[in-house]
Amino acid sequence: MAQTPTPEDAERPDVEAAGAAGAGTAPEPRRTRTRAAKPVAPADAADAAASPADEPSPADAPVGEAPAPRPRRASRPRAATASTAATDGPAPGDPPAAEAGAPQARRASPPRTAKPATEAAAAQSSGPVDRGGAWAVVGAGPHGLSALKALLQHGIDADGFERESDVGGNWNFGAENSRVYESTHLISSKPFTQFPDFPMPDSYPDYPSHRQVKEYFGRYADHFGLRHRIRFRSDVVKAEPVDGGARWDVTVRDRDSAAEATYRYSGLVVSNGHNWNPKIPQYPGLEEFGGQVIHSADYKGADIVRGRRVLVVGAGNTGCDVAVESAQNASHTWHSTRRGYYYNPKFAIGRPSDQVADSLLAMRLPLPVRRVLFGATLKLTVGDLTKFGLQKPDHKFFETHPIVNQQLVYYVGHGDITPMRDIERFDETGAVFQDGSRADVDLVVFCTGYLVTFPFLDEQWLNWSGDHPQLFLQMFTPSYDNLVVSGLIQPDSGQWTLAHWQGVLAARVAEALRDRPFAARGFLSRAQSEAGRRFSAGTHYKDSTRHYFEVAHQDYLQALQDAIHELERAA
Ligand SMILES: Cc1cc2nc3c(=O)[nH]c(=O)nc-3n(C[C@H](O)[C@H](O)[C@H](O)COP(=O)(O)OP(=O)(O)OC[C@H]3O[C@@H](n4cnc5c(N)ncnc54)[C@H](O)[C@@H]3O)c2cc1C
Ligand SMILES: NC(=O)c1ccc[n+]([C@@H]2O[C@H](COP(=O)([O-])OP(=O)(O)OC[C@H]3O[C@@H](n4cnc5c(N)ncnc54)[C@H](OP(=O)(O)O)[C@@H]3O)[C@@H](O)[C@H]2O)c1
User: Average pLDDT of 411-430?
Assistant: First the structure.
């Protein structure tokens, strides 16, 4: 039997990950012919690793088999019956049993012979189309794809909804919510970014381009038979709990016909991404500024900076990339940051630097020792940043989301980028900075990050704390057991390994809610008390909106692994 990669496998570089997928070196992702799946009894579903849906999805297409490396074998789930389910625990959204005085009746999952959810059925029906035990997944970026795949593999029928015409999310260059630009390459290296059960091709470089990444997601969707389960060009405009939270009504608008239909699901996975809604700072005088102002959300390539005087604001990875590209094309570039940063190289000692960093982690070196080693490496290579006119970092290593950019300091050293302090105000012709200096510019590019938004969901259900949700394991809300968010993380490493395991955890929870509601409830009862738990590996992240969802990948992977194990043990 093929062994499912564990989170530890996912941490290993290329060769071992490829080995887990059944080859000596990382192979081309396998292509597998999609064929209609036979209905599979829920008890056998995880073992068969097939997509066992027994009714057509809104995509109205045959169900593809998902011939993935098998999920870890689950114990045979206890079949849910109306009577066992009804006495197992309170319904989602009901008050805790202690408050309610007695265990609440939990709704059993409706039988899996529910009506088809085709568009035609939706049009004819007066109410929502009942999708029975199926779950809905919003978004077909890497998190939506891996959640959809995991649900199907674990015997949970599921439908995906994607507003664009293709999969890939942020990596679907040119799509409305995509924020990659022409020159974007990964900053996390291939083996530390890819899905653990689907290695990137050997022919890809260490840091693939956005085009290669998009192609990779397309292959992933094909390989696991996901496209047929996704309804494209379909905007989820509303999702709301019904039946006391036991089900979710998901209203979808067809982007071509504007027709709306509502489907009723047993659960909802939200994977709409959090890197798309521009965060635009306000400054005195900005309205009087006569030049052009854009946010990096609208920065698609160098054309807009060519030959102009450009002010780039912010030094996340976007700000550094845009400043470098501007240095190569603009007449001059000013780069304003409100603090100093560490500019990590993409390569160190001939290897992708994240791989070198993880070797130190694997040696279990304590955080202070790793900080000293990082500092020494940067001192030896780049040297003292203040000698270039850059600000001294006001924080220790790992306290801000890592910048991976080998070229910024180079262009500062060439005089093509002038580092500036935080902006104090704008006037008609340019900006005045906090040290009193000024720059007259034609274009301002705010690379100031993104705000988290769920336009189709009432935010109160996501345990909002101030301006962001606080979720147990970054995924689960105290409000509803059957509402899962996948993707609300910003790791200090590649993301799709974590997306994979978030998907597995979501599927395990869905499976437990259906088959072992008492165990599911036990697990999810921590959603309130552990909502504030951070996965920072002992680091105190700098106070900034962009660190709300920052996770140290090794810590978070461990937490996901523990949670999955807990649910598997209860099976
Ligand atoms: C410029 C840039 C570079 C990055 N580089 C890296 C990197 O090197 N390594 C890394 O690991 N991560 C990187 N990231 C982080 C990146 O966001 C994640 O890799 C990943 O794309 C997040 O996946 P997701 O599925 O959560 O969201 P997304 O990729 O944003 O996908 C969300 C999907 O949901 C769809 N959607 C949204 N709302 C709706 C709706 N209402 N109805 C239907 N569909 C909807 C969108 O159309 C989209 O397809 C980068 C981010 C940016 C902005
Ligand atoms: N693969 C790639 O090449 C690549 C490229 C771009 C982005 N990304 C990823 O995409 C995600 C988003 O990155 P991002 O760079 O767009 O956003 P980001 O990481 O949120 O960075 C925003 C930057 O703007 C600054 N900032 C925010 N608000 C400000 C304000 N009001 N005034 C002045 N400065 C302000 C922040 O400063 P503070 O330090 O004070 O917060 C930070 O320097 C990250 O996960 C990143 O790694 C990857």
Answer: 98
